[in-house]
Design goal:
The complex is a heterodimer of chains A (289) and B (462). Chain A is an alpha/beta fold and 289 residues long. Chain A contains eleven helices and eleven strands. A seven-stranded mixed β-sheet of chain A has the order 1-11-10-4-9-8-7, with helices on both faces. A four-stranded antiparallel β-sheet of chain A has the order 3-2-5-6, covered by helices on one side. In chain A, strand 5 and strand 6 form a beta hairpin. The longest helix of chain A has 16 residues. By secondary structure, chain B is mainly α. Chain B is built from 15 helices and two strands. Chain B has a two-stranded antiparallel sheet with strand order 1-2. Chain B starts with a helix and ends with a helix. The chains are: A alpha/beta (289), B mainly alpha (462). At the A-B interface, helix 3, helix 4 and helix 7 of A face helix 11 and helix 12 of B.
Chain lengths: 289, 462
């Protein structure tokens, strides 16, 4: 609400700054920048999302490239989390939420009636804003996914998956002595890395991260960011963040959302140095958000 | 002056005191520059005067009323000449009654011994004296409280703190009242039980296998020696409760899971209150439902299959009790399941778990301590339940584990032992207190255990 007020007031000031562009979004805004890719992992075309009567996402088209880290930034309530949650159909669990448009992964329609959501979510993992380890042991937290998807044939297999996942999440050294203690007993940063380990234990192709560091202190944040960089070698990562510095540090491309519309997508460096759109510039220079 | 008059007068004094205090506070504040200069709001000064005027006088009033008659009776009996002073308790109270009756004019004074007439006149005199001195004293205390409170109204006086403190103590007093009442009940049951255990050994009671509480009324009566083994009763209680829990736990739990996890908002708003209506049905209605509908139905059903089912079977009583307990379990379980954070479900769903996997592997384990606590509370409810079993369970104390047979429960026996005219010094009647004590201990332990588990659960998420 705040942002819309400001957006309405903004034009007067920007008129002085720039005569051509205003901070109001045109109704038929077309995303500026490079939102398509030659080698896409996921493609979204004309995605609209509604919560009951309220439209949250307006006509968004975007490609996510293989093994890239794409950051989604924008003021609160701009729809970036909603957009992220359409990618593994987590919005299905929200009452009254519906969407139209096409979302495909490797050419398969994610919203096809026959699609198995269970399998989809095994391919597209998710890490949430607040660390949410299950009230189980560290081991069982990581083993949860492999167990329900039947990925391990034996106890030895499972042990191996757990160890590898924890190693990839750079948590192994800290917890190897207490694998069977509750995951809720870890520190916030460790819990979040445990959640990442849990997500990668089922070897997903894409990992969605919804503000993974917003509940963490700077040191834990730094560790997670480091981890994201390592993970990008093997996984495609889409991360929603409130911190522009974080987007700048970890992502290859950055998408800027405003009031449910995708304003601009460009290589991260360009977004933060030479944004193409007036609104993006206004946001990254801190004029609102 | 009558008791009610005194109370009205005190009330009037209180109201007067409030306005006096507030007015005085305003008067003190005005020259200083408004009520801002006072320590507390003017109404607190008013409240303080009310407290000063009422609390000590009401305390005095209460104590006087309680001890008044005992003191007077003592004085009256002490005034009697030695020749007619009663020797034992029974004749003492008989004589006292007679004096009271003469004094109130129920028995005409003519024809009574002179000493007795004197004593009743003395009693009347004392009662009169007591009432007047009570009135004077209470009003004096109240007035002086008023004056003292009025005197205390000064800008610096911390009236708010004083009022807060009294309020706190009053609340504490109310809490104590509940605790002392419980304590009183427990002690009275305990003392009666001790009396029972004088005639029947604790060992025979707790471990005895036979229950037949008929004791001989005459010395020469045959075959009614009485045996007080509580085991069959507790076994029956456990059997009936077990049948009840077998029905209530799965049904209650599953309906809670459905309501909390699957039901749409519309169904939930309708179904939850509907389920809770079950809890509002009086147990006596459940009782005749069990005795008149369920039990005959089960018996006939058994006949069709060639199984003999007693018409007062544990199955019928326990089954209906189970239905009664369903809402108890479902609403407790629903609460703890809804208390599991949504982030847990999201985490599990995002891993690709189905909804039922999420529920069985994450939600229920997380809610388990709370669910167990709820079940324990339900068990203690089942054990203490009376009306249904009185109507639907049997009276004969069979020691059996077969739910098709008739059993009796502790509560049923207590009811039978204490209904009708009873002599309160025979072991037969006193046995009810011992049973009550045992039942109390069992349910208390269960409740403590359950609350402990529920508490542990709460600490996990808050």
């Amino acid at each position: 609400m705040n942002t819309s007020n400001i957006a309405e007031k903004e034009p007067k000031t920007t008129a002085k700054l720039s005569s051509e562009q205003t901070l109001e979004i045109e109704d038929n805004h077309i995303t500026v920048g490079s939102c398509f890719s030659d080698n896409p992992k996921m493609t979204m075309r004309n995605v609209n999302v509604f919560y009951a009567d309220k439209q949250a996402i307006f006509d968004v088209s975007l490609d996510i490239e293989k093994n890239e880290v794409i950051a989604m930034i924008g003021p609160s309530g701009c729809g970036k989390s909603t957009f992220l949650r359409t990618l593994n159909r987590m919005n299905d669990t929200v009452d009254g939420c519906r969407m139209d448009g096409d979302i495909c992964m490797d050419g398969d329609d994610l919203y096809a009636p026959k699609l198995d959501v269970v399998e989809l979510r095994a391919r597209v993992g998710m890490v949430f804003q607040k660390p949410n380890p299950f009230p189980k042991s560290i081991y069982d937290n990581v083993a949860y996914g492999p167990k329900i998807h039947g990925l391990a044939d034996s106890r030895v297999d499972l042990d191996e998956i757990v160890e590898n996942s924890l190693r990839k999440a750079s948590l192994w050294e800290e917890v190897k002595e207490r694998l069977h203690q509750p995951g809720t007993g870890l520190s916030g940063g460790q819990q979040q890395r445990l959640c990442i380990a849990r997500a990668i234990a089922v070897s997903p192709e894409v990992i969605l991260m919804d503000e993974p560091c917003s509940a963490l202190d700077p040191i834990a944040t730094a560790k997670i960011e480091e981890l994201i960089e390592e993970l990008s070698e093997n996984f495609t990562i889409a991360i929603v963040t409130h911190s522009m510095q974080q987007a700048a540090r970890v992502s290859h491309r950055t998408a800027y959302f405003h009031l449910g519309k995708l304003i601009e997508v460009n290589p991260t460096e360009q977004v933060f140095t030479m944004p193409q759109h007036q609104l993006t510039e206004a946001y990254i220079t801190g004029r609102f958000g | 002056m009558q008791t009610a008059d005194i109370l009205f007068l005190l009330l009037g004094l209180g109201v007067f005191g409030f306005y006096l205090g507030r007015g005085r506070a305003l008067a003190v504040a005005n020259p200083l520059g408004g009520i801002r200069q006072l320590h507390s709001l003017p109404s607190y000064y008013g409240m303080h005067i009310v407290i000063c005027a009422l609390i000590p006088s009401l305390l005095l009033f209460g104590l006087w009323i309680i001890f008044d008659s005992t003191v007077i009776d003592g004085l009256v009996m002490g005034s009697l000449p030695e020749t007619i002073t009663p020797s034992d308790n029974a004749s003492y109270s008989l004589l006292l009654n007679k004096i009271t009756n003469v004094a109130s004019g129920i028995i005409p004074a003519t024809g009574q011994p002179q000493a007795l007439v004197d004593a009743s006149a003395y009693k009347l005199y004392l009662e009169n004296l007591s009432r007047w001195s009570l009135t004077t004293l209470v009003l004096m205390v109240s007035m002086s409280g008023l004056v003292w409170g009025r005197f205390k109204v000064q800008a610096k006086f911390q009236a708010r703190q004083a009022v807060e403190k009294v309020m706190q103590n009053m609340l504490f007093g109310c809490a104590c009242l509940a605790i002392f009442t419980t304590l009183g009940i427990v002690l009275s049951v305990l003392f009666e039980s001790i009396q029972f255990f004088r005639s029947v050994s604790v060992y025979d009671f707790v471990f005895g296998l036979e229950w037949s509480p008929q004791t001989a009324i005459r010395e020469d009566q045959v075959g009614s020696s009485g045996s007080f083994g509580a085991i069959p009763l507790f076994a029956g209680t456990l059997l009936v409760s077990a049948v009840a829990m077998v029905i209530a736990v799965p049904v209650g739990l599953m309906s809670a899971i459905y309501l909390a996890e699957y039901a749409s908002k519309n169904i939930r708003t309708f179904a939850k209150p509907a389920l809770e209506v079950l809890a509002g049905i009086p147990t006596v209605v459940y009782g005749f439902f069990a005795a008149l509908t369920v039990a005959p139905f089960l018996r006939d059903l058994g006949n069709d299959f060639g199984v003999s089912i007693s018409s007062e079977s544990a199955l019928a009583a326990g089954g209906v009790m189970g239905i009664m307990i369903i809402p108890f379990i479902s609403s407790l379980a629903d609460d703890v399941i809804t208390a599991v954070p949504q982030s847990m479900r999201d985490g599990s769903l995002a891993m690709g778990a189905t909804q039922s996997e999420t529920i069985s592997k994450v939600v229920i384990p997380a809610a388990l301590p709370g669910i167990v606590g709820g079940i324990m509370l339900a068990v203690s409810r089942a054990i203490g339940e009376t009306m249904i079993v009185v109507m639907a369970a049997g009276l004969a104390a069979n020691l059996t584990a077969n739910p098709l047979e008739s059993v009796t429960t502790v509560t049923v026996q207590i009811v039978t032992l204490l209904t009708g005219d009873q002599e309160f010094d025979s072991p037969k009647t006193l046995a009810a207190f011992a049973l009550g004590l045992m039942l109390f201990i069992v349910t208390l332990l269960l409740n403590i255990f359950a609350l402990h588990i529920v508490k542990k659960y709460r600490e996990q998420y808050e």
